[in-house]
Specification:
With 187 residues, the protein is an alpha+beta fold. The chain is 37% helix and 19% strand. The strands form four sheets. Strands 4-5-6 form a three-stranded antiparallel beta sheet. The protein has a two-stranded antiparallel sheet with strand order 1-2. The protein has a two-stranded parallel sheet with strand order 3-7. The two termini are 36 Å apart.
Amino acid sequence: MVKQYDKSKLSGIYCVQFVTFKNDKNGMKVLKSWVNACIKWCFNRCEDGKFGDQKYLDDWPKKFEGVYVLDDLGGGVAPWNAIRFVAKKSADKILLIEMGTGLKFRLNFYHFHDLRVYKFMDKLLFISNKNLAYDIPFSIKHLIYCDYYKSYINSHKALKTVYQNTDNRLEGLRSYINNYLQKYLGI
């Protein structure tokens, strides 16, 4: 974490960017607890020791059995810590080099925090960090954001061609999610 961007006391020590649950007794206990907490309170603000859906995660390693915290630098790179790294392309992957230590590692996933997509003159535009709060190195913008933008545009075109009636698709997705929550979590 870069000290100037550290908001963990308010928003939580973990970021809800990559959370998985094993489909067993322990995993479902954690998931059900989280779902129920989020149903009761989940807002984009700090209030009574809560923040959105992620402050709930702070005590999971102590509260629940079988919870593991990812310790891979390549998982969890985001605008608030990107300033620590330089990105390099290597074959079909992106390598990051930590500037302070020279440590090299593969980027596994990137958290596109506050990335917004706007349509302007029939073109899709990405705007990241609307308040320009983060200093993101050029190599990260070039290798991660630009590639993501190209993939997004291609996917958007393909989906637009395949799915003309998005209202029916969204209703089907809502129904699927509700059935899943009821069947597996009993809510």
